[in-house]
Design a protein that fits this description.
This protein has 327 residues and is of the alpha+beta class. Helix content is 17%, strand content 31%. Strand 2 and strand 3 form a beta hairpin.
Length: 327
Amino acid sequence: MRRALWSVGSIALVALLAFAFLPSAGRQTLHLTFSGLPTLENGHYYEGWAVIDGEDWSTGRFNVGPDGELVALDGEPTGGDYDAGIDLSETSLVAITRHPPLDAMGKDSTGPVVPHLISGTVVDLEAPMSVHGGGSLNATFTDATAVVTLRDVGFQLTDIALPELSGGWVYEAWVDVGGAATSLGRFGGANAAGSDALMSKEDLMAKAEMQAKAAMEAKAAMDAKAAMEALAGTDQPNDEPVANEGHHDHSAHDASTESGAYPALRSMVDPRGGRVFITVEANADDSPEPYGVYALAIEIPSDAVTGSEFALAELALGLPTGWATIK
């Protein structure tokens, strides 16, 4: 009996020692914080990625809550911690992508292009992330240009020169007066070839209908009425391309100038007292409202006179940034 008990005890001791010396699972948690990362709507979401030995490993899906906190897809706060289920110690790059809603089976419905928003190289288990981190956006707008010229009715947006976008991103021009943002339409970078980056006519019309409803609720009808009254006594220039907000003729965008810049965009909305800006939008949009990634913007004074020109400029805080910590 004594020998049997000793045998059982020996076995337990050996098992305990073996367990103690098992390889550690390593650092499996990725902690994320962001500044300026917009909330996605209608089921769209973000996903974190760790690049290890050239392979992408998902660290989890998330969104940004109304107060800026990170939340799971069910809206529950996460505290910014995500268990990847693998050792992240050898991670070389952390990236954030954005996705359209999951399909009916809960599967990723992303097509062949995943908009890669921000990323950063890992040094000492930490990675500062930005649009300059090597993702598909990977753009800087320091040298980008666009000029607002006030007309008798509305304004014209000219001299548009922006870096080329890829990976599911397009530009969109906006005018916002009194909190009612109205789109002038989507377009690719000034150096993009052709019009394959443009929104389809069907999508533009659907987006415009959603914007029209939102604009009416924001009293945009008052601006439209004032513009129509002014238009009744003003001859429409014949030498400038005119486009209705949210509806653009693709052929007009195809007729690029020798410099590669897109033709002028025209709006009937009076921008005085508001702002004109250009955002970076995903092809698979989550909302008719502007996505909070700003390329260029300018405030238009309320007392500006017809013919005045205002150059859009890069916003210091217009692009999202983040910080990833492996722990």
